[in-house]
Amino acid sequence: MPDIVPNGHAPDAFDDASNGVRARAQLGTFLQNDGWFPQPITATDGYRALYAGDSGEFRCLALIRTDLEQLLFYAVAPVRVVVESRLAVAEYITRANYGLRIGNFELDFSDGEVRYKSSIDFEGEQLTGNLIRNTIYPAVKLLDTYLPGLMKVAFGGVEPALAIAEIEGQP
User: Fold this and answer.
1) Predicted structure pTM score
2) C-alpha–C-alpha distance, residues 20 and 38, integer Å
């Protein structure tokens, strides 16, 4: 019988309590090695970075919820939507969200921030580079794809349905 350690597990058993802590380290290593130049966010288990897409540069936040063993990734649009356009943008992102398989757009009605969120629950599993990659890249790629339509709706007065049709190549 193996020795029992204070957490009640055998010494070689997977320690769920520190899985979130290991995940934060893995996230930092992945971001650094993948060329994101991550900056730790004070008082959180996360990093900030920038992503330069074809449609603009996005502020990104990669957060580990160590207690819940979750990775949350946010790609934030480079503009704030003015109050007068928020309902139209809400319709635009609702239309964009329909059918998306990974993640979703969010609009903060109080300040006009638009972001794309992608996440993964890795409870009881090791957070690997592939899981991180498959969580963060859909967010930046989809924000990059839908940002031109968002800008047309928010600042150009284009109808949300028309902007979506153009982005998604619908007739």
Assistant:
1) 0.87
2) 18
Q: Among candidates 138, 150, 40, which has minimal Cα distance to 93? A: 150
CB under 8 Å to 136, separation ≥6 — which residues? 60, 62, 73, 118
Beta bridge partners of 107: 114
The Cα 6–Cα 18 span in angstroms is 14
**Strand, coil or helix: 37:** coil
Torsions phi, psi of 39, nearest 5?
-120, 125
Fold of the CATH domain 16-168: Yope Regulator; Chain: A, (3.30.1460)
Q: At which residue do the structure tokens 């802590």 appear?
A: 21
* pLDDT tens series, the chain, 171 aa: 344 334 444 334 445 558 988 999 999 999 999 999 999 998 888 999 999 999 999 999 999 999 999 999 999 999 999 999 999 999 999 999 999 999 999 999 999 999 999 999 999 999 999 999 999 999 999 999 999 999 999 999 999 999 999 999 976
> Which residue in this structure is represented by tokens 């957070």?
127
Looking at residue 4, the DSSP 8-state letter turns out to be: P
